[in-house]
Amino acid sequence: MSVRFWPIFLAAAFSPAAALDLGEAYRLAQEADAKYQSVVARTEAEIEGVTVARAKLLPQVGAVGSVGKLWVERKAGGRNFPVSPTDTWNWAVNLRQPLYRPGEWAIYRQARASAEGAQFRLQNEKSLLLERLAKAYLAALNAAAQLQTAQSDVARYQAILHQAEAAFYRGQGTRIEIEEAKARRDAAYAQVLSAQGELEIAERALILLIGKQVSSAELKDLAERHILSRDILARPPTSWVDEAKSANLGLAFLRKQVEVAQYKVQQQLDGHKPTLDIVAGYKQSSSESEITLEQQFKTGSVALQATLPLFSGFGVSAAVRQAKDLLRQAELELEQNTREIEQSVLDAYTKVRFGESQVAALDQALRSAEQAVFGTRKGVLAGTRNTVDVLNAEQQAAATRAKRIDAIYQLLEAIVELLVAVNKPPEEAIAWFTGQNG
């Protein structure tokens, strides 16, 4: 592609558009991401489970009725006495109110703890969704910046090529310098093609998350927000670890899972206990049987009904042991995840610390590389340097620019990882990360 087309291409690819900031992208992701929506549905189901469990502790009322015909043939003294078909009907209302159901109460408490844990899990999933979205968003910005840098490199090498050709025609250069400039330009153009592919992949990943067509030109650049690392590093790592242990909703969910397992054990232990209910009923019937032909009855009853389990094939004992094993599993998972959270916080903090140092080092390296380009160009004018020297200096500067861009976005990703590890509420994290918190 000729150099004269690059400004046009850059203007089209990076012209201002309606910016899609991280907050709006997060809102779209909440609506579009199937993984997040599945957690929402599961949470709603577990909340309804509380109502289901509570219902078993409330009065149970039922009604039953029937109508039909009754045929009876009576035999007496060796003679048959046929009876005409008789209308028969009955209906009844029954009520059962549990009074003492320890197992059902354990199930209710278990359902309530499970619903509370589900809400913690949902809040934690919101943070994980933010992490996935922010990384996709930053990857698209990084790819776009790398493409822009690669395109600028092609333009620079093309300009050097023109200078080398002009110098050759004036008798001040060599054919080797021209060929070297062409080689660097072609290599830079190959890098452009690679960067275009990376950008397309990054944009597709972002589109998949938010469920909306978007290009990198519509994203709000966040490169300058890498300065947030200073605020993070102003606090010691132990402070971030303590915050994570107290605020991490993933751990809160696992604590609730331990509580659920404890109620499960209690539920199984209660399988050995008796139950007590109030049972009441009212019934009306007519010609209900052959001995009540042409008779109507109204019957009411109320009673205390006790049930005592005696033997269930050792099933209750086995269920208790199984529940205790599941409780132990939940406790171990909580312990393991607590360690992993601590490790993830420390890892993210370390990435931020070294990322900030790397960006600072590359800032200095870029200044030195650009100064080297400037000095080499002056050397060409003085006759002490040639075009190949300029190409080498430009190549070093180009590589440093690309590394600096990548380091900035890697640092931003580390900041996001730390915010998620300590479970900053997504809206608060976005406001702080994007500088919209005033």
* Percentage of residues in strands: 5-15%
The number of domains: 1
CATH class: Mainly Alpha
Let me know the number of strands. Answer: 6
The level of helicity is 55-70%
What is the name of the CATH topology?
Outer membrane efflux proteins (OEP)
Gross morphology is elongated
3D architecture notes:
The chain contains eleven helices and six strands. The protein has helices at residues 6-13, 22-32, 34-55, 102-169, 175-210, 228-233, 237-247, 249-269, 315-382, 387-421, 426-434, and strands spanning 60-70, 73-76, 79-82, 86-100, 275-286, 296-307. Strands 1-4-5-6 form a four-stranded antiparallel sheet, with no helix packed on it. A two-stranded antiparallel ribbon has the order 2-3. The longest helix is centred in the N-terminal third of the chain and has 68 residues, at 102-169.
Question: What is the element layout, followed by pairings?
Answer:
Blueprint: H1 6-13, H2 22-32, H3 34-55, E1 60-70, E2 73-76, E3 79-82, E4 86-100, H4 102-169, H5 175-210, H6 228-233, H7 237-247, H8 249-269, E5 275-286, E6 296-307, H9 315-382, H10 387-421, H11 426-434
Antiparallel strand pairs: 1-4, 2-3, 4-5, 5-6
Helix pairs in contact: 2-4, 3-4, 4-5, 4-8, 4-10, 5-10, 7-9, 8-9, 9-10
